[in-house]
Amino acid sequence: MYDCIRHCEGAKRPKQSSSSEIASTSFGAPSRNDGLTAMYSRKAIKAILKRVSKQKLSPQAAFQKLRHLSYETLGFARLDHHRPLRKNLPEVIYAPGKTLAQLEKITNALLRKKTPLLITRLEEDKFRKLKKRFPKLIFSKMARVAYVKSHKSEIASVALLPRNDVIARKSRRQRDDEAISKNCVAIVTAGTSDIPIAEEARITLETIGRSVHCFYDLGVAGLHRLLDHLPEIEKADAIICIAGMEGALPSVLAGLISKPVIAVPTSVGYGSSFKGIAPLLTMLNTCAQGVAVVNIDSGFNAACFAHLMLSSD
Questions:
Q1: For residue 162, is it within any domain?
Q2: Cα-based distances in Å from 106 to 16, 73, 97, 100
Q3: pTM over 0.90
Q4: Cβ(283)–Cβ(263) under 8 Å?
Q5: CA separation for the pair 129, 295 (Å, rounded)
Q6: d(CA 3, CA 254)
Q7: Using an 8 Å Cβ cutoff, are 118 and 149 in contact?
Q8: What is the pLDDT of residue 196?
Q9: What proportion of the chain, given as a percentage, has pLDDT over 70?
Q10: pLDDT confidence tier of residue 68, bands split at 50, 70 and 90
Q11: pLDDT tens per residue, range 200-257
Q12: 155 occurs within a structural domain
């Protein structure tokens, strides 16, 4: 088990930017004085507009910085750089069907933005080739996900921490309990065979800055295992529940706790499970309230749903 611009009206006209200034502020290459960690984060855009308003940056140079704000065209792909602002989620690469050259170009373009990078459903042989060019890439063989976490990710909407004096009055147990529940997602699987999908969800959430606690192999064939962990699971703000076979676990779990459950059917099972159709139908027909169901084997979409749900708080 794993426990896992604003340009002020009437202001003086800023000096004309030199060609070198514009060149140094082209997309994906912030100048040294910007202090920007992510070109299209909210913080970065506010910093650019503030510099324009204070006449420290010309509108022309600001335009060069923001010219790919909507999307960037690579010929075979249009990268949605506006997604972090619009959706509070990064652009993600779905690997199947893409050539190595296409993956390299998309990866390079996204890494230049210094935002979290995710490549889903990636085969190990392609990862090894990508790793030679992008040494910071990390790979999970089980989840088939390659990723790079942003050092200062602004994707996740993290709650403000309490004052130090308040923290000091709280016991270690209280602080630990709050750490588990604050913007945290619990991932529960019915069986060990469901872990690859759970790992895809876990890596997705952690890459965009969410705290995750995992509870694996708690299926209904041994319900006492689930009951032992219910108090810990309910400390989370959202639960992703993953199951194959008959797919009963999300209904059982949702009936026992007060938190929303995101159900993920998997293709784990014998013939009559129809590669995940049986658990999908079971989950869609649940009589327990507060269950949302995503596609078969879609740990990634479950993670995105959980993140957006918590971001709206």
A1: no
A2: 34, 10, 13, 10
A3: no
A4: yes
A5: 30
A6: 20
A7: no
A8: 97
A9: 74
A10: low
A11: 999 999 998 899 999 999 999 999 999 999 999 999 999 999 999 999 999 999 999 9
A12: no
C-alpha–C-alpha distance, residues 179 and 173, integer Å:
10
From the number of C-beta atoms within 10 Å of its C-beta (0-12, 13-18, 19+), residue 306 rates as: buried
Are 254 and 291 within 8 A, CB to CB? Answer: yes
pLDDT for the residue 83: 79
Strand partners, 145: 120, 140
Residues 191 and 264 in one domain: yes
Average pLDDT of the chain is 80
One-letter amino acid for residue 189 of the chain: T
Q: State the total domains in the chain.
A: 3
Nearest to 118 by CA among 87, 150, 85: 150
Q: Which of 143, 142, 85, 101 is nearest to 118 (CA)?
A: 143
The domain of 30 spans: 19-65
- 151 contacts: CB under 8 Å, gap ≥ 6: 37
Q: How confident is the model at residue 193 (pLDDT cuts 50, 70, 90)?
A: very high
Q: What DSSP string describes 51-111?
A: HHHTTSS-HHHHHHHHTTSS-EE-SS-EE-TTHHHHHSS---EE-TT--HHHHHHHHHHHH
